[in-house]
From TrEMBL:
InterPro entries: Bac_transglu_N, Papain-like_cys_pep_sf, Transglutaminase-like. The lineage of its organism: Bacteria, Pseudomonadati, Pseudomonadota, Betaproteobacteria, Burkholderiales. Residues 176-241 form the Transglutaminase-like domain. This is Transglutaminase. It comes from the Bacteria. SMART domains: TGc (SM00460).
Amino acid sequence: MPPPRPDTVKYKIHHHTVYRYTEPVRRSVHEVHLQPRSGPLQTVDYWQLSTPGNPSAARDGFGNIVHNFTVAGPASTIAIEASGEVEVLPPHGELDRDGHHAFCDAPPDGEARVSPLYFLGSTPLTTAPAPMRAFAAPFLAAGHDIDALLALARGIGERVRYKPNTTDVGTSAAEAFALGSGVCQDQAQVMVAACRALGIPARYVSGYFYDPAATELASHAWADICLDPAGQIWCSIDITHGCLTDERHIRLAVGRDYASAAPVRGIRDGGGGETLEVNVTITPLSN
């Protein structure tokens, strides 16, 4: 393996998820987006995933690496572990007139993906009611260059304040917007919903954000906005932090909303009550 380039930032990541049940689960089926892919913004040096059973891997229509597995016997706990090393690449690609970097995310030869225009369609989690469209429209009245999109993202961050434990994974963008609070998932879905309502393709991104001052790390979420569907040119905006993504962001998956890019989702038969424990560690490595 060649040494990392001196202008990259390399991280060692460990993600441990444990589901515990008050009664044994008789059978469960799981879909996991816990393996990042190499692309224009990062290079995955190695990655390993441990789940019960024998997970099958595939590429979905968004370019994500997806694993599926089934737990067929009684289980009181289900543990999923992912770890590896990822190099986050420095800003590169096309520059807009204000000096911001955009990137091309066209599929490599031989890989089929949905068109960026597919990300114009709303979902139950990303429907934009009239008040949300009215809020977003002035920010993009003169066009949707990166500065305008950043202004919208910061406006959303002020309108939907970051406040844990006020929403859950089933909260829609419309509900979070009306409530005026939520977490990164909600802010990202409001950004996606607002852009789509104004005719701009946008997709939800799940991943990690490295904050050396954080006492606990967890999954993070932000949005990719398509600047040029024909050229498959995108910019990536962290609504929570009001900035373009940078060397602190590690991408896991993209989708139409949280549901299609969630790190772990599934259905089960039995199990009674459920508790979830997630532990994420991110360690920068010296180049």
